[in-house]
Amino acid sequence: MIYNNEKIVSVGKGSPLTLSWELVTHCQFKCSYCYFNPYESSTNYSEVMKIVLTKIKNIKEPVEMTLLGGEPTLHPEFHHLIKSLYEMNHVTKIDVITNFQPTVEFWRPLLPYKDKIEIVLSYHVEYSQKNFFKKIEALKNDFNMNIIFLVHNELKYLSKLKEAADKYFELGLETLPITFAKLVDRSSGSAEYFEYQAETLSFLSEQEKRVKRLKYPEVIPVTTEAGTKIEINQMEFSSKNMNRFKGWKCQMNALIIHPDGMVSYPCTNQKKHILFAELGKRNLVCAHEICPCEAYWNFTKTKNS
Ligand code: SF4
Ligand code: SF4
């Protein structure tokens, strides 16, 4: 991996144990590119919640939670669940990845817990997501927020994407980070980006320049062979195809808890019920063509010499 003519030998700065908890199987949308394929299920979410919370309570190290789905805000006890996690001292952060359909009033009861919460708003151009930016305006002083702006590869969506991107930059929220992300195709069982045409790639590179001017752009720390430490803008990292670590050593520190209480160990095919799952770091040698999830780029990775 080369950046500005320098060989990169390590990426990421490590991170606490990250538990991604898929709270429910359903969602208001059915995005064509959704890897989850939402569906209605008969799972007793309250029962699963009790078991998972007990298991998390017994973890002996700091934990960062990421709540997702389906759409996590549709969990029948969403507010109670956030309160329970908040009250665990070792849970240091609670990210909620949401399509931001709930009203402003839905979010306000979470204000007492806001110091641990980050609302990660995902923008899905196939749906109208009415009032998306108005709700951001209404809540911008109350919660930490972050936008994942999914850039569709079909040209018919390009004008709507441009309009939405302009709306975001017009808000002048230079402290609200945004990532313009390409769609990942997981249909073949492995992950690869969908194919993008020149017009959309040009839109992406325009947004990359705009994001670089923000006060706090998301960055990925890397170390060169000469020992120099550099922070690379997350969008540049992706546009230069730097998220490819096949054969590198990776300190993978994330697990996925599914709505039915099963636990997946990402980047391997392992799965266990939460009652029997060990929740902790794993040292892997990366076997994948791309590392598709931005959240995983910060796990420490070193090039095998
Ligand atoms: S909003 Fe998210 S979970 Fe819902 S269908 Fe779209 S990608 Fe899937
Ligand atoms: S795909 Fe998985 S194993 Fe490979 S670098 Fe990313 S997190 Fe690590």
Automatic annotation (TrEMBL):
It comes from Peredibacter starrii. Gene3D superfamilies: Aldolase class I. Residues 23-186 form the Radical SAM core domain. This is Radical SAM protein. The keyword Metal-binding applies. GO terms for molecular function: catalytic activity; iron-sulfur cluster binding; metal ion binding. The keyword rRNA-binding does not apply. InterPro entries: Aldolase_TIM (IPR013785), Radical_SAM_PqqE_MftC-like (IPR050377), rSAM (IPR007197), rSAM_sf (IPR058240). PANTHER family: PQQA PEPTIDE CYCLASE, RADICAL SAM DOMAIN PROTEIN.
